[in-house]
Each structure stands twice: as structure tokens, then as C-alpha cells.
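Follow-up to my earlier ticket, as requested here are the two runs.
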Amino acid sequence: MKRALAVFLLAVMLLLPADVMAAGKFDPKAPVNNLRVSSTGYNYVKLKWDKSDYAKGYRIYRAKSENGRYRLVKITQKTYFKNTGRITNKRYYYKVRAYGKAGNRTVKGRYSGKVSGVAAIAVPAVKLKPALGGVIAVSWNKIKGAEKYQIYRATGPSGKYKKVKTTKARSWKDTGKPAGTFYYYKVRAYRHSGGKIRYSGFSPAGCEMSSPGRVTGVTAASDDGFVALSWTPVQGASGYEIYRKTSADSDYRVYAETAGSSFSDSNVSEGQTYYYRVRAYRAVDGSRFYGEYSSGKCSAERLVEKAAQWLGTNKDTDAHKAIIDCYNSVKPLPVGYEVKYTDEWCAAFVTAAAIKSDNLEIMPRECGCERMINLYKSHKRSKWEENDSYVPEKGDLIMYRWDAEGSGDCTARAQHVGIVTSAGSKSFTTIEGNTTLRDKNGNVLQKSTVAYKTVPVDYTYTRGFCLPDFDEGTSETYTPPEVTEGAAVMICDADGDAVVIDAPEDMVSDYDRQLEQILSELDSMTSSGEKEKMQYIVDYVREEMHPSEGEDAGFFYGNLIFNICSSAGIDATLENELASDGGINTWNVVILDGKTYYIKADENSEITECILTHTLT
């Protein structure tokens, strides 16, 4: 009876499926399923796989080639593994097997299939924006683990790319590019790993131009009840703005826009004369970047005339605000900075006059004197004259340096600028914004105003001259009043009387004095590191410079520190971020030589923190 029961049970077992027979036991014949690379970074490869029934754990093996020798690198009870270390840009091959219990023995299962992965540096994503003045702004996203970035440029989609810049920053401005010409850029990141330089792949190539070219070939013809305009199409233009005025002495205003190269103006009256000009624009990421106007000849006469319309304008008046608004009206703004009504404004005054007089083709826009000099040094039509004894012409710009010694050519940073209105062989007259009027005893008549000044040739405080290339030739003859050697003459707008001043240094603004002290101290800190110099700037600004009432303190300090860095020749960029608490507690980010400084101000406009870090916490 027992023998018959045993035979029956054996027969039943042979008829049962294998998975029922193996219930509750690890099957060494079963491989690990669905091994895959779930993610990678610059220094890791992460693997995942499906859980094996009744497995006690898993053994991960790695090889340098698919059919190479696989070595055990990890034993784990988890169903994932993150391979880290100095493995950037190295391809490894992986396979996994489970292990479990068979009675009292530990047995290993079958290997999974093989997978491979590379711990690669991410590829940057490039953004390009054009700007006037021959500038293309190249920027890209931050790549984790990257030490630096390399920028390559070509002149065509299939052209040869050449490396043009290596930088720690995440942006770069390519200058000196002619309008209307496309340039192609790509960027890659790199880091050192295992004693070698490991590169990311190149970003997809992007193309952009510095700005559209100037509109040419404009014609206007009157017909029955309308004026027909046409012009030569501009390469890369998204559209065109048409400006119109009804008298030679009035200002142009935006009148219409079109995507084509012609326009019919039907809003006209018989016998009326109409004046037109056109400029192209290129739309990028919702912003417009403009080419030069289709204006006629660039005119020194027109520059001086427009500047003179602001004579007698004092700071904090509506007329002064109109000058600053005019400067800020042309986008993109130089160095991305919007001039405030509280800022020093001599260079902004010159730029506003250039805008009003249609001379931007030869007069680069700027609100900083030294940056304006640098633009003239590289301008395609205008130039910089270093010689202090140069005899200027109408429309030239004189740059001043108030601590110049009067011997040899001063090469220090410029502090003030004026427009030459007329000139003789021994002296010349200027019109200047943000200047100070004094009587013959040195008493202040008016501060921060627009006024005439007569300056002797080879003036002690001359830094040099910016020379716009006007189309109309030389200036008119001028006989200046007598001046005391080494002194300047201010001509008051009220009655035209000339009064002598003997202390030009008093014309220097408080900001200029403070800036010079900062720059002088930074120059002397030859053995100090970057952080110490930055801390000196922050400490000085905290004690001596304060925002006006109602001004966002975080933005004020951040912009101010950035401007000081620029004046000191320190390669810094500026970004803005809001603190987590919002409101006036605003972070302003100054990126200096690849390091990030976060400036924070409290509700009392005091700098509460200046943190050198790479993470905003």
C-alpha cells in the first residue's frame, strides 16, 4: 500500500509545472532581466534591473570592452547600482547576476544581457543675441561638473570652425562683427579627469548676426493721394520700422512697420512735405535688435544743434529725465545697463545727442567714458586720438582726466566727456552735460548742468579725443575769448558772460572721486587675491555709497559693484535673482572670473551678505 502511494505521488509531481515545483526557492537557471542604463552624469553611470524571485542579492560585473574580461565591482541587495569615480568619457560594459540559497548553499544565477554606458559631460545649449556696435552675445546653460567652456566660430554652415574663446563664465560677447553678416557658433564643456582633459560633445551650431545692416536704396515717389516708399531688402531682417516727420526741424517718430521692402503712405495732405527714414530689425526671443537708420549724411552740425537744445538743463528736472530717457530708448542697452536718473550722465548726454542727431552710425552708444574710448578704438569709421595737443574739430569729443599731470599723453581712465562745438588753433568750445558752473572766485553757480566751456589746446586735463567720421568735413572758424593758461572758461547760458575757473578738479563728481580711490587701492593690492579685492569693494560701497530713497537696494549694490569691476578692468558679468523671501531682500549676482558673488541688502538698504559661492542657499 505504501509503495503504491509513493508511486502515485511521484507521478503527480512529474505532472506539475516547474514553477510550482520551485516555489519558494531561488532558481539558478533564471537570468537577471531588463538590465538597463537609467541615467548618466559627468562622473557616474546608473544601472537598474528587475527584481529576481527569491534572490538574496546581486553581483555587478564591469569590463572595458564588450567581450573583455568582466570583473566584479559591487555586491548589493538593491536592484540598482551607481558606478562613480574618475570615469568621465569612458565607456564601460556591465552585466549582473543574482544569487540565492539552494538548501544550505549559496548559488549564483545566470548573467543578464550586457549593457554599456558612458559618464559623459552634458552638451551645452547655446543662445545667441545680436546687438549694435558689431556685437554678438553668446550664452549657454551651466553644465554640471564643467571646469571651463570652449567657443568655436565659423562663417558658414559648412565652414571650418575655429576656437575663439575659452572661459569659466557662461557667456561671451563677440565684438567687431560687421552688421548683416551671419556667424555660426558652437560650444563644448570640459573637465580634467584621470589626468586627462575630458570634453563634452559640441552643442548644435547656432547662427546670428551682430545686427541687421543699414537700410539703403530708399526712394520716395508721390502719386495720386499717397507716397510710395521702397528700399533694398536687408539680409536677416525680420521687418522694418518707418519713421516720419513733417518738418526738417522736428524729430522723427515711429510711423509704421512692415515685413516687406516697400510701404505706401496714404495719410498725406496735398502740398505738405514729408520726411522719411527706415531701419531694419531682427526679432530674437521676443526682443528686437535694430540696424542703423537710413539717414543721410552724418552731421557734426546736427550733433551740436541737438546738444545745444538742452543748454541750461539741470539734474533732477524734466529736461534731464528726457536726456536719460532718450539714452535708454535704444535697445539693446550698452553692457545691458539702464541709466538711472541718479547716475553720472556726461557720457549719456553725448549719446542722447548722437541719437537725436541721427549719428549713431559713427558714434557708438555708451554711458561710461572709458568704455566709450574703447569702442572708438575699434570702430570701423571713427577713431581715437591719444595726442593731448590735437586741435579738434566740430563734433569731436574731448575726454578729461582730472588728475593728469599735463606732461605726455595720459593713459589713465577717463572721467568726463564733452562735445566740441567750434574750434580755433589755440582753444575750442565744448558743450557738456553733468558739469559745474562757477564764478571767477570759484563759487558754484550751478551743479550737474548742461553748459558751454572753452578749453585751451593741449589742456592740462585732456585725456584724448574721440573722432566721429562725419560726412561734411571741417568745422567753422572760431575766435575764442582770452583764457588764463592752464584754466578753463565756463560760459553761463543765462547771460553769456565768460568766467574763469582755476580749480577744474572741483568739477569731479563725488562718484568719480570715490571710484578713483577704489581703483587706486585695488591697484596697490598686488599680492591680494580675488576674494580680498572683492571684499574691499563691498566694504567700501557699504560705508560710502547708498541708494536713493525707494530704490531697490539689492539691485543698486549689485549694479554698482559690477560697474566698479568694469572700471577696474575686471571681467565680470551681472545677473539678478530674487531671494526666497522676495520683496526688497533681493540678491544681485556678480560673476567675477568664473566665481559667483551674491550681494544681499536688507530693508534698511544695508549690505547684509556678500557670499562667494557656487550655490545660492
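Run two:
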Amino acid sequence: MSGQEMHLCAFHQVFRRTALFPPPQQSGMLKRRWYLFIMVALVVRGLYIGIQHHYRPGQDLPGVLSLESGDTKGYLDPVENLIDQGRYEPDYRMPGVAAPYWLFRQFLGQGASRDAMVLLQWLLSAINVYVLALIALRMTGSERIALLVYIAFLISAYSSWFDPIIASDSLSISALILHVHFLQSALDRGSQGRLLLSGSFLAWFVFLRPIGVLLVPLAAALILLRRTTPRPWRSALMLALPFLVLDGVWTARNLSVHGSFSPLTNQGWFPEDFSREIRAHAMHFVQGYGGNYIWWHPGSDIRWYGVWKGGATIDDEGRLAKAPPPYAYVEGYTPADLGALSDRVRSLERGRSSPTDSLAEVVSINARFDELAGLYKERAPFQYHVLSRFRMFKNLVWQNGTESLIIVPFDQLPLWAKVFKLVQVMAYVLSFIIGTIACVMLLWRWRSPPTVLHLWVPFIMAYLVLIFPFALRMCEWRYMAHPFPFALLLAVILLARKGRMSAGHQAAGARTLVNGR
């Protein structure tokens, strides 16, 4: 027996000895009654969809189940144009949502296809309540902890609140959870087929959320470094193969249609029509100093400049939003200059100019925002390159997790809805605070994790929390819905483990978050 094998043998002996809960039998309730757990999740997730429709009535949309976001048409219009005109356009977005919608449109009308999309999102969302519990079971060997994760994720509505909305959020959350589950399952069983399935869900996640593209090579590298299979290179390739094939087809299509190499989106991070709007140029300037650019959120920094959408009366079209902070200024412009630019934007919104004059004014305002952004980048490089990203991080995470949850003033809600929202606030705050502690603990011990899950789950959580504010300076609150299930998972595991230890249960030698060495 080699030294490495002896080390692994000793590790597994300690692993069994220090478990705070005994490992479940294969006939445990979670696995024997899987259909009951999924049925309960279907009912609860369906109830959340019903609550949304109760508080968002009157939308004149095809079908009866779907709701829209500002991005919905960007996902569905290309499919409708492909059916009607034979052209997949506008094709800014990768077809992660369009693909299943196109399949439904082969035999259903627009309304029925939208309803089918909601049913698909609802079904996957419910299944993944159970799947997240299976991930917890594999990480801890404890059915009790797995059941706690199931209950906590079932009660939480933060990520599942996107289930009736035709967009990429619900599907991307489901695809990522399924990828993680089948990755560990494939390694446990030595199954190339399950690796291919895990890679397919990861590829789907990228087609839904292009920012996840870096997870593909990182997942393959994880398999190579862990060497959990006899032929790690073959396993790594099998995991990456679905993305390589699908993205190769998408890239070839874009090269043929546009004559450009576009392996992800076709027009950068934003579509060209958005890039011509004032809000895009104002957003770029506000991002430069780390301001909140969410124009649909009352009181955000960008609304002070007259860029707003929805809820205009709440903050008087942004006039009640806080003025730019001192660090938003550099030599070359003054508070009076920004105030004058804000007045120009509001004047344009009143629509009193002719179409020709309005178009010229838009171009002029955009040029002014670009000029200010250039000045700030040049004369405040540390603020622009470093501090603005930390401010974006705060903008992203400093929330209560209920931005889109029952959009009615809290004091106007019935008692049950107030309790419901407070529970969701608690779930968000505790999941990310405690989950972050667990995430750091696991990543700190990255060299010898008991399973791939002990490394991959916290890494995905950290990646999805950090990538948007630090790499892209973006801070939309819904981005936190993607790492939320993993934060909740880690938080429940840590609380359950530490709770048992503080109650006086012996765990001599336990050094990791779960069943470690």
C-alpha cells in the first residue's frame, strides 16, 4: 500500500469516527419517500406562484400562468421571429431560455407555450428542493441535516420567486443545482453518463447566464486535481464536452450570420438598442464611482440624474434620491454641472421637444455622460478601479432579499403576508451571513475536502457573489438568488453541526465543517 493510500485509509477512519451524526442507511426516508418530498415541494412552490399572481393581477399577457420582467421579450421575441420570418433575431442573448420555448412552440401556441415554460420552471424548482437535500445528505452523511436543508429551502421563497417569470433566473438556479448533484453522483458511481449529464446542466447554465462560462474549465480542472477517477483527463473532457459542442455550434452560427467570433453574447454585455439609451450612459458613469445604477429602485443613485423606471412618484422622479457623494467628483466638473445634466434628462422626459430635437438631445446627453465617465476614470483611478467595485459589492449584498417579493408597502399587507416577508428577510440574512462563514471555512481547507462537494459548493457560492460586482461592477439584487441555495445549504449544515457540539455531544478531533479530518 502506497503512502497516499495509507493516508486516505486513515482519513476515512477519522471521517467515520468524528461524524456528529451517523450516516443514513440506503433505505432512509429521504430516499425511500422521494416522491412525497417532491410532491410537497410542488404544492409549496405552486403556492408561491399563486401568491405572486394574487399581488400582480391585470397583466394582459398570453396564457394564464406567466409573468413578465423587463427582459422577457428579449428571450421570446427571437423565437417568434424565427417561426414567423425564419430569422432568429434579435439574437443578443444566448438561447438558454429560447431553446425550451422553441420546443414548446412546435406544438403549442404562444400563450400555452408560456404556460408550459412556467410549468417547467415550477417542476424543476420543486425537484431541486429535494435535490439540494440530497447534496446535504452526501456532504454530511446525516439525514437529519438533509431534512433541515429541505425544510429551510422549502420555506424560503427568494430563489423560487422567479418561477412564474419568463426569464433566465429560475432555470439557471435549477440547472446549477442539478449540475452539482450529478457531478458528485458521477464521481461516486464512476459514471461517464452522469458526468455528461452534469456537464449538460452546466452548459445550460452558461447559456442562461454567460457569466458562468469560467465554471466550465474550473470544474474540469477540479476533476483533474482531485483525480477521483482512473482517467481524470477523460472525465474532465466528458464534463466539458456538452458546452464545447453546444457553444461550438452557437459560435459557428454567429460567425455565419454576423461574420464575427461571438462564443457568448453577440453584442457584449448589453444589447445595442440599450447602449443607445441615456440610462446606459448614465449607468456607466454611476458605475465608475460605485453608485447604485438600479433605475427601477426608488432612491437609487442613478435616479437622481432623472433616469428612472416605475415608482416615479415615490421619490419624485428621483429628486428625493441622495445627491452624488463627494467621491463622485473630480477636477473637471462640479455639483452644478451634474445638476444641470440631471435637469436636461428630466426635461427630455417631459416630451416637449420635436422628435428631431429629442434625438439630438439624447446624443448630446449621452456624450456628456461619457465625457464625465472618462474624466473620472482618468483622474480618480483608485476610486474607479478599486473602491467602486467594493461599493458595488455592498450595493449587491446589502438588501433584505425581498425586492420583488409582494411589491406592496409593508404596512398595507395583511398579517400573514407580513410574517411571510419577515421570514424571507431572516432566511436571506442568516443564509448569507452564516453561509459565508461556512464557505470560508471550507475553502480554507481546500487541499483535502472529503468530497468534491465540499470544495465545489462553496466555490460556486463565492464565485457567483463576487463575479458581478468585482468583475462587471453590476449589482442587481436578483443576482444573489443564484448563490442563495448554496449559502442556505452551508448555513444549515454549520448551524446543525455547531448546535450539536454546543449541546454537549462529543466530536473529538472534528476539524472540518462536516465529517472532516
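The only thing I checked on run two: Residues 110-140 form the longest helix (31 residues). Let me know what else you need.
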